[in-house]
Amino acid sequence: MTRIIAVCNQKGGVGKTTTATNVGAYLAINGKKVLLVDFDPQANASSGLGFNIKESEGKSIYEGVLGQRLALELAKASAITNYYYIPAHPSLAGVTVELLNKPNREYYLSNFLKPIANLYDYILIDLPPSVSLLTINGLAAAKEVLIPVQCEYYGLEGLGQILETIDLINHNLGKNLKVAGALLTMYDNREHLSREVARELRRHFVGHVYDVEIPRAVALAEAPSFSKPICLYDPESGGAKAYERLARELIAQEINQSNQNYARSWS
C-alpha cells in the first residue's frame, strides 16, 4: 500500500523542504519508488532537485490540480533511480483564488493523484508553511503527516498548531489522518536549548518522535544551491547520514507493523 505523507509545519524555516527532498532521495536509494509532490509556490523542492523553475510554466502541479494536465505527464525523473517529482511554479499561489467558489475544493490534489497513487511506494507532499487551501488540499490527499520541529522554543509552539490543524481536518473532512512522527531538525548537541527542546518533545510525546535528529549543518544548507539532494552533494556529511537514518526509520514502520496501522496516533 502506498504511503502518502504530507511534510508539514505551519511555521516556516523548520527544514520542511530539506526533509521532503532528502528523505525522498534516501527512500529511493533504499529500494522504494518515490514521488515528491512540490505543493509550495516557492518551488524550492523542485529547484533543489535540479528543475529550472523558469521553464516550468505550463508544466507544473498548478496545471495538474486545475485539470489541465495529468499527473503521469508531469512526473519527472530525478538524478536518483526510482525518485520522481512533480514540480511547482509560483503560479500555484493562484490556486486558492481559482478554487475559491468550487465545490469540493479541498479534494483537487487528492483527485489529481488518485490515478497514479498505486505506482509508488511513497508519495511525499511538500506543503507551504501556512494554513491555506493548498495546505488543506495536501492534508486531504495524505494519509499521514511528518512534522519537522526546529530545536528552538517556538518549535514546540509550531507543533501544537499543526496538531490542531490535523484535528480540524479529521473532524471537518471526515478523515483519519495520522501523524507518522515528529522530526527534530537543526539540532546542535552543543546548545542547551537544542537538548532541552529534544528532551521536552520526547517527554510529552513518548514514542512519537523519530530517534534521529537532523543536525544544523552547512552541507544541508548548501546542497539546494547546487540543485542536489544531500546524498549527491555530500554523502559523507552528518546531514546525509541523518536523513539516511530517517529513511530507514520510515521503512521500519512498515516492516515492524505491516499488519497494523503503522501511523502513530497522538493522545
Question: Can you characterise this structure?
Answer:
By secondary structure, the chain is an alpha/beta fold. The chain has a single domain (3-256), classed as Rossmann fold (3-Layer(aba) Sandwich), CATH 3.40.50.300. Helices cover 41% and strands 17% of the residues. The protein contains twelve helices and eight strands. It has helices at 16-29, 44-48, 61-65, 71-74, 95-98, 108-113, 133-141, 153-173, 192-204, 218-222, 230-233, 238-256; strands at 3-7, 34-38, 76-77, 83-86, 122-126, 144-150, 178-187, 209-215. Strands 3-4-2-5-1-6-7-8 form an eight-stranded mixed β-sheet, with helices on both faces. The relative contact order is 0.19.
Shape: globular
Fraction of residues in helices? 40-55%
Order of helices and strands: EHEHHHEEHHEHEHEHEHHH
CATH topology: Rossmann fold
| Structural class by secondary-structure content | alpha/beta
Largest sheet, strands/sense/barrel: 8 strands, mixed
For the record, give the distance between the C-alpha atoms at the N and C termini, rounded to a whole number.
26 Å
